[in-house]
Specification:
- The chain is α/β, with parallel strands linked by helices.
- The protein has helices at about 35-50, 70-85, 95-100, 140-145, 155-160, 180-190, 210; strands at about 1-5, 10-20, 20-30, 60-65, 90-95, 110-115, 120-125, 125, 130, 135-140, 150-155.
- It has two domains: about 1-95 and about 180-210, 2-Layer Sandwich (Nucleotidyltransferase, domain 5), CATH 3.30.420; about 105-165, ATPase, nucleotide binding domain (Nucleotidyltransferase, domain 5, 2-Layer Sandwich), CATH 3.30.420.
- The strands form two sheets. Strands 6, 7, 8, 9, 10 and 11 form a six-stranded mixed sheet that branches.
- The protein starts with a strand and ends in an 18-residue tail after the last helix.
- Pfam families: TsaD.
- Keywords: Transferase.
- One of its GO terms (biological process) is tRNA threonylcarbamoyladenosine modification.
Length: about 230
């Protein structure tokens, strides 16, 4: 199975391709607020270098959030466009799931934490290999009470709020501040495709523009996901 993984949930643009579980290539570039300008060009160049046609893809995995609103929309538009053109199944991947996944077999408790801006954080608690909480939009103070001793913490939220790092917790070195596209590929391989028409960003809060201008139209995805403990 040939899978393309796409992550545009943050200031990085990340792609990966795997074939039958083996990573063929991975690419990441810092493109603050420029995803729409460079994304398709970079991907087309990489596919050409690898002599891979879009039509040969068996599946696309794409990050759906939570994360940067504009980046998520651009990434989903790319995935939908390729999928529509070549009838390729698409698997949505939550960014918190993607951050946590590489560590679930190594630590009993894993808590990915990402900066949601305006004094808030995105987070989720994973216990014994599965998600054991809702996807959370929480203050740093509120999150502190959810962090047990021995938990692995990761994500860019720790850079913004270093006070979350208390005695007894574990921080990976280096601390991954955004999901890896190769993990998006893996989760797409084991996940379930959805109808392209239902593929939407996963938002836990309004965008800054909607907060600053509440009289405008509101566009949001589902608020809080169900628990998924295995």
């Amino acid at each position: 199975m040939l899978i393309l993984g796409v992550d545009t949930s943050n200031i990085f643009l990340s792609f990966a391709i795997e074939r039958d579980g083996a990573l063929i290539f991975t690419y990441s570039e810092k493109v603050p607020m420029r995803h729409s300008e460079v994304m398709f060009l970079r991907l087309r160049e990489l596919m050409h270098q690898l002599d891979i046609e879009f039509s040969s893809l068996d599946r696309i995995g794409v990050s759906i959030g939570p994360g940067m609103f504009t980046g998520l929309r651009v990434g989903l538009a790319l995935a939908k466009g390729i999928a529509y053109s070549h009838s390729i199944p698409v698997v949505p991947v939550n960014t918190l799931d993607a951050l946590a996944h590489p560590y679930l077999s190594l630590y009993r408790t894993v808590i990915p934490i990402t900066d949601a801006r305006r004094g808030l954080l995105y987070a989720a608690v994973y216990q014994d290999g599965g998600r054991d909480s809702d996807y959370l939009l929480v203050t740093p103070e509120g999150l502190k009470d959810l962090i047990p001793e021995g938990a692995l913490l990761l994500g860019d939220g720790l850079i913004r709020y270093p006070e979350l790092v208390k005695e007894g917790v574990v921080i990976p070195d280096p601390n991954p501040i955004h999901p890896e596209a190769k993990t998006i590929c893996h989760l797409a391989r084991i996940g379930e495709p959805v109808s392209i028409d239902t593929l939407e960003p996963f938002y836990l809060k309004k965008s800054d523009a909607e907060i600053d201008h509440p009289e405008g139209d509101e566009t949001r995805g589902p608020g809080t996901g169900p628990r998924d403990r295995k």
